[in-house]
């Protein structure tokens, strides 16, 4: 395993798992079924982000760039798994802390992610053309 994979994948995974567990144990809100459901969703969302980030490898960038067209792993089904998983993660956190008003965060996050996904799609389509259009036809978001 290269050092980059430790920084890109394993360190964020460990930090995320620790943070989720600490929020679950000590965060505000009632300790009941919704909190456990939130923990499960938080883990699923975090795992999705980490798996997607690992699959992207060195193709990951914050700004839209077209280094490679990644179509394997989770990217074989979802074009933007980091965005989808991030929303799942936030929903999990909201359930854990028992503050439904925090779902308003999604009113900001989701449109931002849609705009970013469209920008990335334009960059990828310019670089990969028909290959990207075919990929887009067989995947979700």
Structural notes for this entry:
The chain has 5 helices and no strands. The chain has 141 residues and is mainly alpha-helical. The chain has one domain. The longest helix is centred in the last third of the chain and has 25 residues, at 104-128. It is globular and about 50 Å long.
Itemize the secondary structure elements and their pairings.
Blueprint: H1 3-26, H2 33-56, H3 81-97, H4 104-128, H5 130-137
Helix pairs in contact: 1-2, 2-3, 3-4, 4-5
Key phrases:
single chain, mainly alpha, 141 residues
Q: What can be said about this structure in brief?
A:
Helix content is 70%, strand content 0%. With 141 residues, it is mainly alpha-helical. α1 (3-26) packs antiparallel against α2, α2 (33-56) packs antiparallel against α3 and α3 packs antiparallel against α4 (104-128).
- Rounded mean pLDDT score: 89
Number of strands: 0
> What does the largest sheet look like?
none
Low-confidence stretches: none
Number of domains: 1
Tally of helical runs: 5
Radius of gyration: 17 Å
Strand content range: under 5%
Q: Which structural class fits the helix and strand makeup?
A: mainly alpha
Question: What percent of the residues sit in helical stretches (DSSP H or I)?
Answer: 55-70%
Shape: globular
Query: What's the N-to-C terminus distance?
Result: 31 Å
């Amino acid at each position: 395993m290269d050092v980059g994979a430790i920084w890109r994948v394993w360190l964020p995974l460990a930090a995320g798992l620790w943070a989720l567990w600490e929020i679950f144990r000590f965060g505000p809100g009632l300790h009941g079924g919704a909190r456990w459901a939130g923990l499960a969703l938080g883990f699923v969302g975090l795992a999705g982000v980490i798996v997607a980030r690992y699959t992207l490898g060195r193709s990951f960038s914050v700004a839209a760039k077209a280094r490679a067209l990644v179509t394997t792993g989770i990217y074989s089904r979802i074009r933007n798994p980091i965005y989808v998983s991030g929303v799942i993660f936030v929903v999990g956190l909201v359930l854990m802390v028992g503050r439904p008003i925090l779902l308003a965060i999604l009113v900001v996050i989701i449109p931002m992610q849609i705009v970013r996904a469209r920008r990335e799609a334009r960059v990828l389509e310019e670089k990969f053309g028909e290959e990207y259009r075919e990929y887009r036809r067989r995947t979700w978001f």
